[in-house]
Amino acid sequence: MKYSAVLTIIIGLCLLSGCKGRQAGVPVLSVSIEPQRYLLERIAGPGWKVNTVLSKGADPENFDPAMSTLVRTAQSEVYFTIGAGAFEESLAERLAEASPGLRFSDSSARVSRLHGTHDCDGSHGHHDGTTDDEGDADPHIWTSVANMKIVAANMARVLCEIDSAQAGAYKENLRALNLSLDSLDSRIQAVMARNNSQAFMVEHPSLSYFAHDYGLEQIALGGEGKELSASAIRRGIDHGRADGATVFFTEPQSGSGRVGQIIKALAGKEVSINTLAYDWPDELMKIAQALSSR
Fold this sequence. Notes:
Blueprint: H1 3-16, E1 22-23, E2 26-31, H2 34-44, E3 49-52, H3 67-74, E4 78-81, H4 86-98, E5 103-106, H5 145-162, H6 167-192, E6 199-202, H7 208-213, E7 217-220, H8 230-242, E8 247-250, H9 257-266, E9 269-272, H10 280-292
Parallel strand pairs: 2-3, 2-4, 4-5, 6-7, 6-8, 8-9
Antiparallel strand pairs: 1-2
């Protein structure tokens, strides 16, 4: 029996048992990544359970959700995507077939995407990307406070549609969230004002939107999902030295300790971050503070 058929049967049994849209009696919303959950929980309040598809520490580039994750997502009232990678497209196809009544909503609608940030080898250019439609769109929109305000507004709008009785509360929660995000942006700008260098290094171009927002240069050793060659590492280190980069950011998803050792020895300090963490505002502040502390 095909995997999709098995999924359809399991979800069908759940629907027949009356568990559509609820877990332990609480209505469910699903999101792709933890930074979305951070936003949505603050908008939706305690009356909703928010389910995250991407497992903690998983790499969006090669993530394959477990059957239990698919079932939980299919039981949701809405699945909010964010353009996080191929796993979303594959998941959407399977869920659309197995759970036709599931509503999908693109929470990244109206976000201005950067392009061409993954077409790099550490040897040239400002890899914070361009808003021109050349090259692949960069998916890491959650490293921008401004982008996340758009994501929050999109999710709040859908919540108001499906639960109009609580629309006033959702709008007030969104207003409070926006104030906190504005404060975060102001604090980042204040910290970045002490930054003497505009360049930093990463293994893969995951901080393009952060660099774009705050006028920085991201030097990436390689594109997303590409193995790093010794020559690319050397070119990246030479580029970083030439442009005064002394901070190299690594993430759990990169998983290349060899690169970390090389960068630590040749390009200053290595700083571990996790932009896919639930408390993504703390991660952005950590990035700003690392760049400003010399």
